[in-house]
Structure formats: C-alpha cells, structure tokens
Amino acid sequence: MLYSVYCRDKEDTAALREKHLAVHRAHLDAWKDKIFFSGPLQSDDATLAHGSLFVLNVEDRAEAERFIFTEVFYNAGVFADVTIRRMRKGYYNPALIEGL
C-alpha cells in the first residue's frame, strides 16, 4: 500500500536539520526498500527546506507510522506536524524523474 507522509518544518529549524542530517540519511538508507520516493520540500529558490515528503510502499498505516516516528527529524523536533495519508498510484511518468 502506498502512503504519503507530509512533514512541515517548524520555523527556524535549518541548523537542527543540518545537525541531524547524517542520522536522517542513515534512516532513509535503512528503509530504502520501502521508500518509493522522497525529498525535502524547499523554498522556490531551493535555499531553504520547509519540510519533507515521503511516499512509502508499506504493508499498512502502522508501518508508515513506524517509519516516521523513528525518524530523527521527527524526534529532534524539526517537524511542526506530520500528515499520513493512504494513496493509490494514479498516473505515473518515470521519464520525468530521469535527470532530477
């Protein structure tokens, strides 16, 4: 099942994000077989992260919750809020992802 996990950062957490970046990346690596797509949500000029978006292919909502509730950015207080929603794959164009 696909689940989107939308995480909105608290204000002024760029330094906290940077401090925990290596552990965050290790967490993503540990879950790489379940992450369909992920990335930071950025300002229009790509100079500041405002949050994170994860699209997970997991067994159920509980597994999506395990993913995010063990994420260092969540536990370090980077995120102001997290929204988890089940979704289904609609239109998919992998050619648009190439080269990003």
UniProtKB/TrEMBL annotation:
Pfam family, one: YCII
YCII-related domain boundaries: 1-87
SUPFAM superfamilies to which the protein is assigned, alphabetical: Dimeric alpha+beta barrel
Source domain of life: Bacteria
Record family assignment: Belongs to the YciI family.
Protein name according to UniProt: YciI family protein
